[in-house]
Hints:
The chain is mostly helical. The protein folds into two domains: 2-204, Cation efflux protein transmembrane domain (Alpha-lytic protease prodomain-like), CATH 1.20.1510.10; 210-319, Alpha-Beta Plaits (2-Layer Sandwich). 64% of the residues lie in helices and 9% in strands. The protein contains nine helices and three strands; from the N terminus they run H-H-H-H-H-H-H-E-E-H-E-H. It has helices spanning 2-32, 35-61, 76-104, 112-139, 143-172, 177-204, 210-222, 257-275, 316-319, and strands at residues 230-239, 242-251, 279-287. A three-stranded mixed β-sheet has the order 1-2-3, covered by helices on one side. Strand 1 and strand 2 (242-251) form a beta hairpin. It is elongated, with a radius of gyration of 26 Å. The two termini are 44 Å apart.
Amino acid sequence: MHKTKQNFKVQLFVTTLSIILFVLKFVAYYLTHSLSVLSDALESIVNVLAGCIGLYSLYVASKPKDKDHPYGHGKAEFISAAFEGSLIITAGLIIILEALSSFSSPTALHALDNGLWILLITALINLFAGLMAKKIGRKNNSLALVSSGKHLIIDSVTTFGVIMGIAIVLLTKFNGLDSYIAMLMGIWIIYNGYTIIRQSIAGIMDEADMALLENVIAEINDNRNKSWIDLHNLRVIKYGPLMHIDCHLTMPWYLNVHEAHLIMDQFTDLIKSKFGDSVEFFIHIDGCMPFSCDICTLENCPQRQASFKKKLDWTMENVLVNTKHQL
Length: 327
């Protein structure tokens, strides 16, 4: 719950900041009449809309599980990110269209030095806020906050690009460069919008997060209990701040229910200590089979039927399959 509240507060800060920077950028456009500055200001409109959507999605995602949503509301963040990516692409297309039209009807530029200083301030603020939002979003497993952070960083990069272009225009007096800069910024914005949509669709479709899987497997391998004889059919899915883990865990067949449950608690506590309390588990406990003796490291097993031969490391290749392992 603490992480959820922190995500919401950071997103609220990001949204408020987007509104302030949006006003500043349009002041810069009013002073300069620069198309590249306008392109940057148009993206700020997207920032405001995306910030509001992200804020609402975090509110929805923070709601507890209920009868209609047994897995919680975390996927609202994926929908928010997809919409935000769509808005980013739309802004990029508008910028390119404006740039193309300017080639035939160029606009006179003026007061570029004043506009440059205003843009520099907005770029630095955006960069700081974006890095902060992205860091906290990754720490708290919030795609909506990570997307907002990426969006702010993208916005700062485009603003720095516009600043460089304005500086070149001031030095060379070549006003036509303004349209080319706007065109490049539009292409850059569209590409980044695509990457955000791609990530959100992956979340909606429950695409496997290979980096997360590797981290989970590494943590289990490094702290392996000898009573965890085998691990297979592992699944890791993220629903916003919630991480869901399914797996089959093989234990000695002769344990009673209470003993097996205590060993299972050690397994879940290990993962929660690494990834936080927002993890839910569906663990199927299997009893070991005679062929498990070859890979079982449990010492002084009263029911051992064969000597230990080799410790089997759990890897991405062998824990995802729905088959008990054997030599």
